[in-house]
Amino acid sequence: MPINKKNIGIEAIAFDIPQHYIQMTDLAEARGIDPMKYVLGLGQSEMAVSSPCEDSVVLAIEAAKQAIDNFGIDASSIGLVVVGTETPIDHSKPVASYVHEFLELSQECRVVEMKHACYGAMAGVSMATDWILSGRNKQKKALVIATDIAYYGVNTPGEPTQGAGAVAMVISEQPRLVEFEIEFQGYYAKQVMDFWRPLYKKEAIADGHYSIDCYLNALGDSYQMYKNQYFEKNDKIDNNFNKIFSASLYHVPFVKMAQKAHIMLLGQDWGMQPARDSEEFQTAKNDYQLRVAPYLKLNARIGNIYTGSLFLSLYNFLADASESMTGKSISLFGYGSGCSAEFISAKILKFDKRLLDYKDRLKKRRKLDIVSYENLQELWKNTGNKDGVFNDEWELDRQFIYLGSEDHKRQYQNKFKA
Ligand code: HMG
């Protein structure tokens, strides 16, 4: 049955990040590793570090407030809030309830937290799209937020792929930034032990190299499903199918992963995976430099923000892509370990670029040395494990901060109201 035509897409987007970061070359030096492994091998130059006062709620609320304020969204028009996160703050109570309260949203609202590793926010975007498509939204808009703090622990292989941040998006029938091409999408799911975090641990466990294979398998199969659907509607697709997208955006656990992903997809189109020293590999790498790499600057300087990593790359794309891309198509691939994945596409709309800016935000961060970073990580690891309040010792320039718990109830200082 044909899908009803509706214009559904992203009306507003904003992100938030912790106010501290480390330099990857400093981390490499402290770990006795060639800095080029982190900078070139993984593609990371800096990494965001959360203080105990910056939990997944704080990051989510700040990102959502900016999306609403910067784009002039009427908060009373929001009828669905979905928070994708794998950094929950409670076994029962969702981050989304705090977002709903602190943004003073209408009580006529569906509010839920979505978990499937890094796939949670992409699942939220799809849920919002389907809700609007069904007409049950009654013209209301959805607020979808990705918020996470990636933590593997000090001196682990995953450590250089940590990070933290949130991306908030308003999905509606009045898209201003991109419109989803809802007739095509590819899914993939398979139970795999590539990355997980048992309830009793703050550190994620990763079977790192296997997780890369799982990601690539999920990408290949969901892309194939997308292509098959496209093929049903279009007589012919050639072996450069991927070129229909002006930019290809991926889930970015570390920047080099997006390069691996893109080269593999082009290889899939060509019916062969290029060997590293081949001409085809170089052709694919050149294409990566053109259609993927320009939109990974934020990821390289923030690190893995799990559910939000793909959307951080989207933000980077929207802020930096040339106006000549208006009306063209981009692809978006979301992957969550465990695993579940989705491949979709969207058309770029004409919008005022001044609505998006990230350069000042990065400049305002404070750099930590590695000893201070390790101390902060230790504090973060022990935060929230027992009842008790604490002070903001980090002099954060924030309107909203987390201050521990009293009587097992989370305490937040909200200066937005003052
Ligand atoms: P590792 O074993 O430390 O690193 O693990 P490596 O030996 O594989 O080296 C990494 C790259 O650096 C290699 O490049 C090396 O050649 C290169 P590649 O061969 O892959 O192109 N290299 C150098 N380059 C220049 N100069 C040098 C040098 N030395 C080496 N001197 C790994 C790396 C990513 C596996 C590890 O950090 C890890 O386990 N990270 C966490 C897991 C992860 O990020 N997995 C990604 C896929 S799963 C996913 O995306 C889901 C996730 O986001 C979670 C969720 O869904 O919630 C993680």
Given helix and strand content, the structural type is: alpha+beta
For this structure, the CATH topology is Peroxisomal Thiolase, Chain A, domain 1
Q: In percent terms, what proportion of residues is strand?
A: 15-25%
CATH superfamily: Thiolase/Chalcone synthase
CATH architecture: 3-Layer(aba) Sandwich
Return the string of H and E elements.
Answer: EEHHEHEHEHEEEEEEHEHHHHEEHEHEEE
Residue ranges: pLDDT <50 for 5 or more in a row? Answer: none
Distance between the termini: 53 Å
Mean pLDDT: 96
CATH class categorisation: Alpha Beta
Which ions, cofactors or small ligands are bound in this entry? Answer: 3-hydroxy-3-methylglutaryl-coenzyme A
Quick structural gist:
By secondary structure, the protein is of the alpha+beta class. It is built from 12 helices and 18 strands.
Task: Report on this structure.
The model has no long low-confidence stretch (mean pLDDT 96). α7 packs across α8. The chain has 418 residues and is an alpha+beta fold. The strands form four sheets. Strands 1, 4, 5, 6, 7, 8, 9, 12, 13 and 14 form a ten-stranded mixed β-sheet that branches. Strands 3-2-15 form a three-stranded mixed β-sheet. 46% of the residues are buried. The longest helix is centred in the middle third of the chain and has 26 residues. The protein is built from twelve helices and 18 strands. It has one domain: Thiolase/Chalcone synthase (Peroxisomal Thiolase, Chain A, domain 1, 3-Layer(aba) Sandwich), CATH 3.40.47.10. The structure holds 3-hydroxy-3-methylglutaryl-coenzyme A (HMG). 3-hydroxy-3-methylglutaryl-coenzyme A binds next to α2, α6, α7 and β13.
